[in-house]
Amino acid sequence: MLNFLARRIVQLVPTLVFVSILIFSLQHLLPGDPALVMAGEERDPAVIEQIRKQYHLDRTIPVQYAYWVANVLSGDLGESLRIKVPVLDLIAQKLPVTLQLAAMAIVIALLIGIPAGIISAVKKGTAWDYGANLFALWGISTPNFWLGIMLIFLFSIKLGWLPASGFVPPSENLRASLASTIMPAFVLGNAIAAILMRHTRSAMLQVLESDYVRTARAKGLSERSVILKHAMRNALTPVITLGALELGTLLSGAVLTEQIFSVPGFGKLIVDAVFNRDYAVVQGVVLVTATVYITLNLIADVAYILVNPRLRG
Amino acid sequence: MNAPPLIEIQRLRVLFRGDDGRTTHAVDSVDLAVDHGATLGLVGESGCGKSVTSLAIMGLLSKRSAEVSGSIRFDGFDLLQAGDQTLRDLRGNRLAMIFQEPMSSLNPSFTIGDQIVETILRHRGGSARAARQRAIQLLGRVHIPSPEKRIDEFPHRLSGGMRQRVMIAIALACDPRLLIADEPTTALDVTLQAQILELMRELKSEGGAAIILITHDLGVVAEVCDEVAVMYAGEIVERAAVDELFSSPQHPYTVGLLGSMPRLDRRAQQLATIDGMVPNMARPPIGCRFAARCPFAVDACTKAPPPLAEVSPRHASRCIRAPLERLVS
């Protein structure tokens, strides 16, 4: 196990190097001169030249990359070109918001998706199954922005139960914090629940037909034990991987939902940065997202091994 | 012997309903009985209804697709009338089964110890420690070397033969009165087959469990069984004691099966085969189901279904032309 972990971590290094090169080249692929953006209204060539020097923009690209990597490794992601705040501070400010949202969304997705998938597989061909499939179809085909607007309309405007927008940190007021994030978390979780449900259902259907489930029944075990112990343990392995990948997507992909509910998270940060050509922020955010994504992948692999003895060697 | 048999199957019939609404007669009015401690071989080619019969005894056929009728009396219970809970209490306890596919019949996510202990705790209760001790004993009984170490291994670390031994250990966990072995050696190579058969013979000689051994291999039957029932197209076509069946088969299908066994003591250019195909069981023929392939068939054979009739004491054949000796002399 430790051996495997060490090997996987070593394998991460080239991935991260590759990602960092991609992220760095982004700046050079996009049109526009960052020095000009930084200069703002200032059109004095001497000032622009000064900015170029300060940010090493006058050096060759590999050298610029080396500078950037050295800075990143020492924890310096640079400074927002626009608002002159260290990128790391911006990320530290927004990441917890997105993490809270993503965690709540994935919990909602797991709580709905897995039981729904199991029930629809076990009760295949019954009203339960059709109901669960209808729900999944609805979840997959409902656009997030529409569902978000409808929820706001119902729970904030009509019923007045939940705040329509904004964010309260949990450290300030846990109740208010949950109230401010439950709707966006549900919007995000709903779509993922549908995907998890479909995967759980098909994995369960396959496993329920397997010989070892027949063996479990031949032992006289209760149906509950057959399904929740013998079948589920094997059916959920692919679902775990999927869940971890979806969580990664949530960290970077909640842009639209964050906009609708005005949640000051990662998605909003990245959109603002792109529109403002704030390369340092874009680079920082993408780097952090990629790292989190890769780490989640690693965790998924480890979880996979923990539940699957055949991979333990 | 006047004691009632351990298991008595009467007019067992299994119909499968397909998704398209068509029905298939997998098993048709099967009568079987096995005495306490006896060993019955159930023989026939793939798809003749052997496995379906055994799954019907175990109550493991899906209620959604299979329609089971008739009666199965086992140890004072009518299995087809019994509730799910009663069946669950019997399965793995007094009624145990070994399956054909040792590679996939064990759950890959649990150690073999867990899978044996689970059965013991389910039916016998007691402490986990005592159950583990019993599991180690059982592994020893099926000749798994150093069982105290092996017990904590996962199935994927064991070979096919070892896994089948573990399956047998699970089946024996609660000292069953009836052990159904569905082609226990088919998936194994020849040397392993011999070892597993040796194990079955040991179980038989230790007494206790009656065995229904399902196989397509008459050689296996000759080695292990007391009695044989031959199945063809969902029906029992012949039933007799092993020696009697081998020396004087009274159904043309049995004759064909015996003829198609490879033998070392006779030279043959080609293995004998039975011409033709098994009838389509969605629409079984009105008369004898084997008639189309039978060298002895006459017109009467295709007119009405032949009854399973005794040709001599404890020897029954579903052939109106039996005894067959007079046909070949």
What are the SSEs and their pairings?
The complex is a heterodimer of chains A (313) and B (329).
Chain A: H1 2-29, H2 34-39, H3 45-54, H4 61-73, H5 87-122, H6 127-141, H7 144-158, H8 174-208, H9 211-218, H10 223-253, H11 255-260, H12 266-275, H13 279-307
Chain B: E1 7-17, E2 23-34, E3 39-43, H1 50-58, E4 66-74, E5 77-78, H2 84-90, E6 95-98, H3 102-105, H4 112-124, H5 128-141, H6 147-150, H7 160-172, E7 178-182, H8 190-205, E8 210-215, H9 218-224, E9 227-232, E10 235-241, H10 242-247, H11 252-259, E11 309-312, E12 315-317, H12 325-328
Parallel strand pairs in B: 3-8, 3-9, 6-7, 7-8
Antiparallel strand pairs in B: 1-2, 1-4, 4-5, 9-10, 10-12, 11-12
Helix pairs in contact in B: 4-5, 5-7
Briefly summarize what is shown.
In chain A, 77% of the residues lie in helices and 0% in strands. Chain A is mainly alpha-helical and 313 residues long. The longest helix of chain A has 36 residues, at 87-122.
Report the portion of residues of chain B in β strands.
Answer: 15-25%
Total number of β-strand segments of chain B? 12
Measured as a percent range, the helix fraction of chain A is over 70%
Distance between the termini of chain A: 9 Å
The geometry of chain B reads as: globular
How many helix segments of chain B?
12
> What's the gyration radius of chain B in Å?
21 Å
**Order of secondary-structure elements of chain A:** HHHHHHHHHHHHH
Described by its quaternary structure, the protein is heterodimer
Indicate the low-confidence ranges of chain B by residue numbers. none
Structural features, described:
- Chain A has 313 residues and is an all-alpha fold.
- Helices cover 77% and strands 0% of the residues of chain A.
- Chain A contains 13 helices and no strands.
- In chain A, helix 5 runs antiparallel to helix 10 and helix 8 packs across helix 10.
- The longest helix of chain A has 36 residues.
- The model of chain A has no long low-confidence stretch (mean pLDDT 85).
- With 329 residues, chain B is of the alpha/beta class.
- Chain B has a domain of 78 residues.
- Chain B has 12 helices and 12 strands.
- In chain B, the strands form 2 sheets. In chain B, strands 6-7-8-3-9-10-12-11 form an 8-stranded mixed β-sheet, with helices on both faces. Chain B has a 4-stranded antiparallel β-sheet with strand order 2-1-4-5, with helices on one face.
- Chain B is globular, with a radius of gyration of 21 Å.
- The model of chain B has no long low-confidence stretch (mean pLDDT 87).
- The interface between A and B is medium-sized, with 20 and 31 residues.
